[in-house]
Amino acid sequence: MKLLHYTYRKLSLLLFLLMAVWGVLFYYAIIDEVIDETDDTLENQAEILIKKALQDPSILTTEGTLMSFYKFQSISEEEGTSYKAVFYDSTVYIEIEDEDEPVRVMRTAFRMPDGQFYELTLMISILERDDMVEAMLWYLGALFLLFLICTSIGIRVVLKGVFRPLHKLLDWLHSIQPGKEVPVLDNPTKIGEFRQLSDAAMDMGNRSYKAYQEQKQFIENASHELQTPLAIVRGKVELLAENEGLTEQQMKELDEIYSTLGRAVKLNKSLLLLSRIENGQYAELEDVSVDEVLDKLLPDLMDIYGGKQIHLDRRQGETPFIIRCNHSLAQILISNLVKNSLLHNQEGGELQIITTPNSFVIKNTGDAPLNNEKLFHRFYRGTDGKKDSTGLGLAIARSIALSASLKLTYEWQEGMHCFFLVKENKNYR
User: What is the C-alpha R_g of the chain?
Assistant: First the structure.
């Protein structure tokens, strides 16, 4: 999840909770205020009625209307002296409308000049209050929703502006490519943390480019320096082998030395190639047809390993398997896989090569499955590892596949070693 969306979601959730709590508190505060005003009205009316009753006792036998209903009832002196005014909500049945209407009720007591205590029950219809509360709820909800939407949009706009330097920095980081100079970062911002991050990224990019150049130079120099003495030693071994005074044992030892030097030369070239692949030094990409590469390689390779009497089963799809890769690396990739299947095949074994528009599959006869976890590691050799093998062929193939967004996997199926080369977004079995 993007930082902008994550921050926006958290702030929106916090804002929603705060607004919800605020709305509930505001609602109950308004309700309490309305009830308090209703009670004050009842107290004022009760005071007026009591004054009238004290002046004119005949009012004690009257009752008010629904909008302001009152009723007097005599009570004992014991009840009157301990009486406390109470307020509560109730309902009263309206015969005309045949329904109950909500009312606010006040009960209080007072004493007439003759010493008799009376209870005054006073009611006020709160139907309008309920209507007002309902309307207030609707308005409050609409205001809450409108405020939340406006605030959310405002927060998103503000956050988008705040994180713009970060997005620009990320785009700049994506534009950096191994082996190429670091592009200029033009990312002015007033936010100190983003300025520090931009400076650190720029410094890191420059140091990485410098380290890359130094590593590249070192590898090329080391390879060149190794090639020269190895070639000299091989030449001297060849001259020494021409000496007629050598015994048969000495010739065998010289032959082993010569073979070892050959493997060292081959190993040096393979390591240099692997390092260049992983450093991204083969930047020239093009569409390469795996089928065309196979058509050129197979005849020569089958002739080289013709002594093993391997049966070739070549199956080709209607359309070729096209990969986006450096052409030289594509040849090395296919060549290594085919050589591996020929070299480690059995005498008179079978070699199956299948190409489809999305995959390249190569299978060869074997004795036992290989270690899938170590198979593509450098210098790994199976149980039947050949003496002349450097153990880098499959490691190089895997590195080339990764650089071309391809997936190279191994499986053991029905007595055969199976290698699958497919595009990253495809599955083939």
Answer: 47
- Nearest in space to 421 (alpha carbons), one of 324, 325, 355, 343: 355
Tell me how many degrees the CA angle 224-225-229 measures, rounded to the nearest 5: 115
Q: Is the confidence at residue 325, as pLDDT, over 70?
A: yes
Residue 98 burial (CB count, 10 A)? 7
**H-helix or E-strand containing 325?**
strand 322-325
CA–CA separation, 194 vs 204, rounded Å? Answer: 15
Tell me the residue type at 263: R
pLDDT in tens, 221-259: 776 677 777 777 778 877 777 777 777 887 888 888 877
pLDDT, average across residues 39-55: 88
Give the DSSP letter of residue 88. Answer: E
CA–CA separation, 290 and 48 (whole Å): 105
Looking at 126-280, which runs of residues are DSSP E strands? none
* Torsions phi, psi for 281 (to 5 deg): -85, -10
Closest C-alpha among 364, 166, 336, 357 to residue 266: 336
Domains and CATH numbers, the chain: 3-159 (3.30.450), 192-278 (1.10.287), 286-423 (3.30.565.10)
Whether the predicted pLDDT of 324 surpasses 50: yes
Which pairing describes strands 322-325 and 286-289: parallel, antiparallel, or unpaired? antiparallel
Cβ count within 10 A of residue 365:
19
pTM, to two decimals: 0.49
Query: In angstroms, rounded to a whole number, what is the distance separating the alpha carbons of residues 124 and 38?
Result: 8
Helix axes 192-241, 248-278, angle to 10 degrees: 160
Rounded Cα–Cα distance for residues 237 and 233 (Å): 6
3-class DSSP state for residue 358?
Answer: coil
Which stretch of 44-48, 199-203, 410-414 has the lowest confidence by average pLDDT?
199-203
pLDDT at 428: 47
Q: What is the distance between the alpha carbons of residues 233 and 331, in angstroms, rounded to a whole number?
A: 31
Give CA–CA dist 346/361, Å, rounded.
19
pLDDT at 279: 66
In tens, the pLDDT along 391-423 reads: 677 888 888 888 888 899 998 888 889 999 998
Distance from C-alpha of 425 to C-alpha of 356, rounded to nearest angstrom: 15
Return the closest-CA partner of residue 333 out of 416, 269, 406. Answer: 406
Q: Is the dihedral of CA 414, 352, 394, 227 positive or negative?
A: positive
